[in-house]
Amino acid sequence: MPLPPTIDCDLHNEVPSKESLYPYLPDYWLDYCRESAFTGPDAADYPATIPTSARPGATAIPALSEIQEKALNGAEIGILNCAYRVQSVRNEELAGALATAVNRWQIEHWLEKEPRLRASIVVPSQNPALAAAEIERWGDHPGFIQVILPVRSEAPYGNRRYDPIFEAAVRHNLVVGINFGGAAGNPPTPSGWPSLYIEEYAGMAQIFQSQATSLVMEGAFDRYPELRVAFIEGGFTWLPSLMWRMDKEWKGLRHNTPWVKRAPSLYWREHLRLTIQPVDGPANATHLGQIVEQIDSDEMLLYGSDYPHLHDSESALFATLPVPLEQKIRSENARAFYRL
Amino acid sequence: MAKHIVARVDEIPPGERKIVEIGGRTIGVFNVNGSFYALRNRCPHQGGPLCQGRVSGFLMATKPGGEYTYTRRGEILRCPWHGWEFDITTGQSWFDPAKTRVRAYEVHVEGLPMPEEMGKLLPGPYTAETYEVSVDDQQFVVVEVP
Amino acid sequence: MAVATAPSALLDRPSSIDVAVIDTDIHITFPSPDVLTNYLAPEWREHHRTFGMRGHQGSHYPRAMPNAARHDSWPAAGGPPGSNLGFVQEQLLDGWNIEYGILNPLVGVGEQRNLAYGAALARAVNEWQLHDWVEPEARLRASVVVPWEDGELAAAEIDHWGGHSAFVQALLIIRTKEPLGRRKYWKMYEAAERNNLPIGIHFGGAGGGPITGAGWPSHYIEDHGGMPQAFQAQVISLIYEGVFERFPGLQIVLIEGGFAWIPPMLWRMDAAWRKLGAETPYLKRPPSEVFREHFWVSTQPMEEPLQREYFRQLLDQLAMDDRLLFATDYPHWDFDAPDQAFPIALDPVRKRNFMAENARRLYGLP
Predict the structure, then answer these.
(1) Domains of chain A: residue spans and CATH
(2) Among A253, A280, B62, C195, whose Cα sits 20 to 30 Å from the Cα of C95?
């Protein structure tokens, strides 16, 4: 039986250059961008020359036609996760103007040209009030189904400073997507700045783990019971180990975070979803099947190709799964979670 | 059931405890607001000396910055090793069970009715072994062990 | 009517373990501040009294219990948990019939911003371990405490004690100022290799930065529960930055980090290396292979999966039966009891290896 079309929860539409945003900037910021040394956000999550930035036959900053031809082929819906890191722009007003421009660019260049696409609202999350205003601006647009935040932030997202973002996202029925990368200025490890790109790349999974912990322990899901969070491009094989660790911690330290009323793993099963790429799977397929079993939920994984980035094939994952679960991962879980 | 005198009533004032040995078992006898309760001095999790734990209250909250509900002061025992919380009056552990293993112990439920707030957190899978306690002649605390 | 008696033992049911036990993580501390002062080199005593220890402030997550200790570990004779040899013997070594115990004092030496003072403190702590603990108690071995933020000073301390049978490893803490693969630490690795001492890296510490790669969390449970992420970051750094290619004899012991995070981290590291290996041309083998040849891992805090079967799966995925080391973490509150900690019944071979034989081999114990 052929599988139904996928809902691909992770496609990248990157802004080719600052000039791409010129038509969408107010005059003041337009001239600032022309006249100053500003060249764009100071982030290096996916330098175009790095092998993982584009798979064979793809370009690191794909045009719409490439996405249509290579990523939407066989897809019912594709969700764009633009990684324009306005969070690295310390001038918050400029960051806000850039975010608005990016979102307008997404509407004109992507959403209005391809009905299968949905997009994520880029927000200056370093200033949650400005970010909430940006969500307010686009929240009712049918093309936007998510607010996108980089996993690297100034404070863990459970911190109450981010409440305006969550409040606005919930009010507009938007998922909060947290994705690979970001440039918040903090070192990306608990022990400072590493030397190599590969360390930052592999280490990004730990920051997802920290964010998962924070969202539960700092009570984000207790303040916003409707909050839905998607982890995008953070891997998922680490999830069982985090569940065991944090459930155990909570049993002993519950009284220190008394709003946490259930084991953390139960919060995650309800509120959190994870895209499957990078699969980060073992050579032994049995072990991968064990990990999926240990997650103990058939709803948490979402299909996401992460086009155009280079990852191992997801075929090893699907080979270990029963067909009904594969079908859920390919489309039904995302349909339910994003309310498509 | 064998009855054992563990203390004179005035030996264990409210808020205090006495740990004794009866027939090879170590048992902690607690005075909670004038009522006596007995628990086995062994946490059903990893065998820690439960009755040497800190006695505290039960804290719940709706959300960070929300309303805190602090009840049952003096009635909640935290295991000295891993901090798991047990209700002294029933031996019931308090955290969500998830799917952890359950070891069944006979429980004698008595004492205070359960306040509404505690019902919001599901009882955990563990129950510390409890014993019947009575006061004999208004003088002696007596524990009954099987 | 019968009368109850005073308890005859510290625990309701004595240990029932039927194999030898080597405890690879015991924490001791000073019974009083004077003890350390007396062991300090005279020229540092006045500095120590006047200016004292200065680490990295601003990462204060008050522990849920004083000294992070078991409530039952405070000696009746006074002093903090882990400060009284007699009580450590009674409650831990005798109570659990422990054959050998490895001391890992967490007393703030390597975090000192004044590096020369940190080096003086390290020497004093090491003298104290030797004279107050290992010499009077034959079951104990010590770890060389080092001022790790200066590779040369740390190397000098390792060289000083390297030939002494009381010391079986050098000791760092997981929250260093920079990732441990960076070259500033390499002199220390060179000395460890030269002296044939493994390097133990223990849970905790404060290197001045936040515990997460996304800034400062709010609660102790996030700091305590976030340590596995700190361990992962250090493994990533040590392997990718080529430490084991440069020091092929170096062995690392990860202490109190747990171990369920290891298989998925190694899978991710291998996957990244297959695509990005051009950045690390010296790394000729998959990171998982390097890990299994150079790392040992303590079992504490024990993993407690949702289903017991998952624990078996974890051991299979880990494939490090010859490198898991039992530890109690005495006297800390997340203590693992030797006869109760494992969530499954281990087969006899695994049990012997985890409880003692792997540690015996690693530390060269008789």
Answers:
(1) 6-338 (3.20.20.140)
(2) A253
